[in-house]
Amino acid sequence: MPLPAIETPATSVPPQILLANHLKALKLPAFARDYEKVAMEAAGDRADYPKYLLRLCELERIDRERRSIERRIRQARFPHTKSFDTFDFAAQPSLNKALVLELARCDWIDKRRNVIALGPSGTGKTHTALALGLAACQRGHSVAFATAAALVHELMEARDERRLRRAQKHLASVKLLIIDELGYVPFTAVGAELLFEVLSQRYERGSTLITSNLPFDEWTSVFGSERLTGALLDRLTHHVHILELNGDSFRLATSRKRQKRSTPENGGAA
Predict the structure, then answer these.
(1) Which end of the chain, N or C, is more open, meaning fewer C-beta atoms within 10 Å of its C-beta?
(2) CA-based R_g, the chain, Å
(3) Residue, of 152 and 246, whose pLDDT is higher
């Protein structure tokens, strides 16, 4: 089969315009943006054509990877972007720092294992979950983030609007599903069953990260059924890393420091 003919443009058109059109059609924005600058650098270094082309390809790959990471972060729907660079491990000595940094390498996601972070409110569970989610996005994994209450609400809405299967398919397809704040709001029987179905579909197919302020023996108060809770924990804890955060609340400590700074040392009125 003969190759399609390529129209020969008019010779009066400047080559820069033709090149820009070709690079746009080929979806090579870094080439289009940087080829002139790199050409001048290559000329100054007396680099040959392959080295010039190699440099452009490197820039294109870097740019493409950056855009891919940004897209995965947007699709994850994080409420904030957090990393471990801003996490105060010294304030949470109960948290296994070595394990957390190992988890940030994301091998557990490749192995379809789970992570459960347990501890009182304000101890850094959400920060930990967001940082691990960000690390997953940076390493090429698809991520979805939601609070437990919001996720159950979305599932019930999807069921009422007859798009539950599509929603379940999406939640089953992401490499990492993060469910934050499990335990703050009890579910209805229907909501508990819908969440159980999502987690059952992900069993040994994808990784799930859950944060909760409740120990496992109190999860029945959220799901309302010992049978369902037991079956859920059996699946979640089969391949799991458990993070315990039992220190003081970061928010409470920050509030106390702020209050102390605003209070005069002599105890008088401000």
Answers:
(1) N
(2) 26
(3) 152
Which of 164, 178, 238 is CA-nearest to residue 203? 238
pTM for this model (two decimals): 0.81
pLDDT tens per residue across span 91-112: 999 999 999 999 999 999 999 9
H runs (alpha helix) in the chain: 15-25, 29-45, 49-76, 97-103, 107-110, 125-138, 148-160, 164-173, 189-202, 220-223, 226-236, 250-262
Q: What amino acid occupies position 63?
A: D
Closest C-alpha among 236, 241, 156, 224 to residue 200:
236
The rounded distance, in Å, linking the Cα atoms of 74 and 94 is 32
Amino acid symbol at 124: G
Residue type, position 202, single letter: R
Q: Give the separation between CA 70 and CA 194, rounded to whole angstroms.
A: 30
Backbone angles phi, psi at 180, to 5 degrees: -100, 150
Q: Is residue 155 within 8 Å of residue 148, measured between CB atoms? A: no
* Residue 111 φ/ψ, nearest 5 degrees: -90, 5
Helix (H, G, I), strand (E, B) or coil at 181: strand
Domain boundaries for CATH 3.40.50.300 within the chain:
77-253
Closest by CA position to 126, among listed 10, 250, 42, 30: 250
Yes or no: say if 218 and 188 are a contact pair by the CB < 8 Å rule: no
At 26, phi and psi to the nearest 5? -85, -5
Query: Which CATH fold topology does 77-253 show?
Result: Rossmann fold (3.40.50)
